[in-house]
Design brief:
single chain, mainly beta, Lipocalin, twelve-stranded antiparallel β-barrel, two-stranded antiparallel sheet, 2 helices, 7% helix, DUF3078, signal, DUF3078 domain-containing protein
Amino acid sequence: MSKASLFLLFLFVTAGLMAQKKEAEEIPEGWNRGAGVGFDFAQLLQINPKQGAGQNRLGLGGAFDGFANYKMGRQAWDNTVLWQFAVQRLGAGVIAQGATSKIPFQKTIDEFRLGSKYGFQIKPDGKLYYSVNGTFLSQLTSTYQFPDLYSGNFVSDFIDSGRSPLSKFLSPATVTLSLGIDYKPNDQLSIFYSPLGSKFIIVASDSIASRGVHGNEVSGEPTKGIYPEFQNLDAQIGSLAQIKYKVTFGGEDRFGFSSNLGLYSNYLDNPQNVDVDWQNTLSFAFTENLHLNVFLNVFYDDDIRVQITDYNAPNGVAGLGKRVSITEQLVIAYARSF
């Protein structure tokens, strides 16, 4: 048995034991929907600042989190959407002496996710479902880089350079589609496993695909980081597991925690290297609808090279490589169910 299989088995056993500690709860039939929108804002203005006092700052960001779940008889259909986005601008004026381009907005996060899972109960009142599970991950806005001029990731071509973006919607995008068994002992825990699932890495833009940084295949000798031959689609077959858990606790259920762990092993290439996509949300309710949310995402894909964080390197980045990527965001959110 591979290390990936042992890891998956351990997670299933652990989660199953956790589920036994919870009494089964009746899940209401029909639609159960809810959404939350959160914002973070930071602003600082300096006019004739003292030496060393800092510089102007404007930061805008937010997150939209929604779900729509349906249950009727032996059918269950769960749908989720999450978009996290934020930008900031540090300083004022133009980017350099003699330049005309203003200090641009830098992108700090842009992540768009969709999830959908349909299940049919194997036995009436049972806890096992035949299920179809699909996920989608991309970003909604373009990202530009100008390392020879001004460091950072930007939401626009602020110098009208004519360069192609580093990324944009569907470039890249990751799509999974799997058939399997879903274990749902209650409305807090779901354990899905597919021994035969598909995963697709899509880089629809040729100019972006030719860079070879998003997991698509490239070949030939690169010229200034551009490969002469490339593929826009990388199709994979493998094993997929997904564990979802949510709970509320504390006085009047003021605290909430939800976790969604996705694990994928590619049978065709290094199956022992498991891809991880782990999303976590911790919330505190000031009132029934006003919450403080902390999002923490952990991501690793054996096909994708990320920017390696090194605080001793220029701009805190030491090239590209395979690493675990961690993202955290804190927002004040308005949320309600309907």
